[in-house]
Amino acid sequence: MAVMLFRLSIFLAAITALLEIGVAANSRRQQCTTTLSDAKLVADQLQLHYYNSSTGQYNLGELWTDANTLEDLHNLMLANDSDDYENAADTSYIAKAALDPNTDWTKFLGGSNDDAQWIILALWKIADYKSARGQDSSAYISSAAKIYDMIAREWDDTCGGGVWWSTEHTYKNAITNELFLLTSAAGYLRTKNEAYLENANKEWSWLIASGMRGPNGLFNDGLDLKTCQNNGQTTWTYNQAVVASGLAALYAATGNTSLLDQAEVSLDATIVSLTGNGILRESCDLADETCNHDQQIFKGIWTKHVQYYLDNANDISRVAKYSQFLGVQHSGILLHATNSAHDIGSVWYTADQGRSQWSPEASASGLQAFISAAKYGSC
Ligand SMILES: *[C@@H]1O[C@H](CO)[C@@H](O)[C@H](O)[C@H]1NC(C)=O
Ligand SMILES: *[C@@H]1O[C@H](CO)[C@@H](O)[C@H](O)[C@H]1NC(C)=O
Ligand SMILES: *[C@@H]1O[C@H](CO)[C@@H](O)[C@H](O)[C@H]1NC(C)=O
């Protein structure tokens, strides 16, 4: 009898443990439904207001910001198992190029090695969506691989390594190299091709030694080519999270948790230094400046890559660390930057005093902040 009770209690303990694991895993993936609904309102308005289905571009958009916006729409559909924007990919000029095996990518990309990698990320996300719906994603995957190979050839020994910002070879900067870390590490996770993993390791060794991350933990824009030193230019928000997303992918490939601690140096520095009222603030959001179209999407990219960071870090305690901050971005944007039509302006941290820019980039930026908050933010 005692033995049976003992066995029963072990059995119950095991069941309880299993249930707890189930609850924890679910609560981590549980999407915040009200935040997702806000995201849907913004995405609907973004498509209505800015998307031109005859050109497949966003009016006032740019190649690389359009790529990010397409990625966001697919990120949203994957979040909610919905197909609301399924035609966006097939009508977009980026996807049309990816589906055409004869696309001249050199011409299409115009020499921008950073733009090229945003397109890789968008194509992978569209491919994930297509595969999740049982559709053929092979053209997206093979176009992404072609673009990746072009970028990998842009690495040389100037300043000890790194890929060039453009094919004109006039600048080496943080974003292009952070993206190369990410596309290499995430590409390895997708393909198990060792060449990608070698590139990721090579890139991180170079990047951390390059001096582009200052003593405050923030990456500056790039290198002064004459001295190969940090050029001290602006510490944009997006630079602080794309590196984290790359490092988490490299962690997922190698199991080296120090990479996650390195990632959080820049994430935490963003929260300390690039915020106002606890909300992300780009230097050009300040009263005497105006963010240009590129800069209007940076903050949303920060939130997107924190989402990807947490996806690959796969650690509840790290989610807990950033959850409240992601939630506050959502509520701050609703309070300060969203109009009654569900367009989103570029200034999030304070009530719009006529300085917010209204554009497809600003709306896409807010959209992604909502999607990230729905997945990992406090509801
Ligand atoms: C999520 O899916 C549910 C069920 O299909 C739907 O009712 C809801 O509108 C969707 N929400 C979003 C944000 O797409
Ligand atoms: C879409 O783009 C075409 C070509 O530039 C233009 O003629 C048309 O007016 C645009 N449509 C919308 C709704 O903006
Ligand atoms: C793990 O990553 C850290 C941080 O970049 C690095 O210093 C260390 O050498 C790595 N460890 C191994 C075994 O590669």
UniProtKB/TrEMBL annotation:
Residues 1-24 form the signal peptide. Pfam families: Glyco_hydro_76 (PF03663). GO terms for molecular function: hydrolase activity. The lineage of its organism: Eukaryota, Fungi, Dikarya, Basidiomycota, Agaricomycotina. Keywords: Hydrolase, Signal. The keyword Signal applies. InterPro entries: 6-hairpin_glycosidase_sf (IPR008928), Glyco_hydro_76 (IPR005198), MUG_Protein (IPR053169). It comes from Suillus luteus UH-Slu-Lm8-n1. It comes from the Eukaryota. One of its GO terms (biological process) is carbohydrate metabolic process. This is Glycoside hydrolase family 76 protein.
